[in-house]
Write a structure and sequence with these properties.
- The structure holds two protein chains of two kinds.
- Chain A is mainly beta.
- Chain A has one domain: Immunoglobulins (Immunoglobulin-like, Sandwich).
- In chain A, 0% of the residues lie in helices and 59% in strands.
- Chain A is globular, with a radius of gyration of 13 Å.
- Chain B contains one helix and eleven strands, in the order βββββββββαββ.
- Helices cover 3% and strands 49% of the residues of chain B.
- Chain B is mostly beta strands.
- Classes of the chains: A mainly beta, B mainly beta.
- The interface between A and B is medium-sized, with 26 and 28 residues.
Chain lengths: 111, 117
């Protein structure tokens, strides 16, 4: 059974801090790892990673995948209150018809 | 361009009742997946519909069933509701089930919050 574990479960920081969110996985026939941001209800897509060592960046957010050690990190620099959300990590495997999600990291950014 | 729309947004049922949730995919999308998200947990895959057929199913009992219509919209039905079925039910759409791997962009709706009393 595919498994995705995220840490920490929750994190409280102040504006301007840099945070690192972790995601480890155990899946058969790995295809890709995805990061989503969930503010209220609908998760919104951030990144998809398929190759080790290639950093994906979007503004203050960046992510990288290590397929040997089976983990990914999501970095957010110069955090803002608008970054407060649950960050979900998910993996696609096998037929790629489904995603297996972790429990998420609740990030709270204080002004 | 309308994104993924779901209805109803909130509903309250009692144990043993049946519920139907509805989803219209993003324009141009033909594949619909349903996920259940319990409080404090990540979404769990229920099933996926493509070309009006269930293509993949997660670890959910037969009480959970679905349907996809020719216009690609979809319904999720849950029979004999249990307290543990209380959750946010998310619908996600994509264009072609295999393309998820290429683009990663699975578009989610706002969800239907089901409370079972």
């Amino acid at each position: 059974e595919d498994k995705v574990v995220q840490s920490p479960l929750s994190l409280v920081v102040h504006e301007g801090d840099t945070v690192t969110l972790n995601c480890s996985y155990e899946v058969t026939n790995f295809r890709s790892l995805l990061w989503y941001k969930q503010e209220k209800k609908a998760p919104t897509f951030l990144f998809m990673l398929t190759s080790s060592g290639i950093e994906k960046k979007s503004g203050r957010l960046s992510s990288i995948l290590d397929k040997k050690e089976l983990f990914s990190i999501l970095n957010i620099t110069a955090t803002q209150t608008g970054d407060s959300a649950v960050y979900l990590c998910a993996v696609s495997s096998g037929s790629a018809r489904q995603l297996t999600f972790g429990s998420g990291t609740q990030l709270t950014v204080l002004p | 361009d309308a994104g993924v729309t779901q209805s109803p947004t909130h509903l309250i049922k009692t144990r043993g009742q049946q519920v139907t949730l509805r989803c219209s995919p993003k324009s141009g999308h033909d594949t619909v997946s349903w996920y259940q998200q319990a409080l404090g947990q990540g979404p769990q895959f229920i099933f996926q519909y493509y070309e009006e057929e269930e293509r993949q199913r997660g670890n959910f009992p037969d009480r959970f069933s679905g349907h996809q219509f020719p216009n690609y919209s979809s319904e999720l039905n849950v029979n004999a509701l249990l307290l543990g079925d209380s959750a946010l039910y998310l619908c996600a759409s994509s264009q072609g089930q295999l393309r998820l791997m290429n683009t990663g962009e699975l578009f989610f709706g706002e969800g239907s919050r089901l409370t079972v009393l």
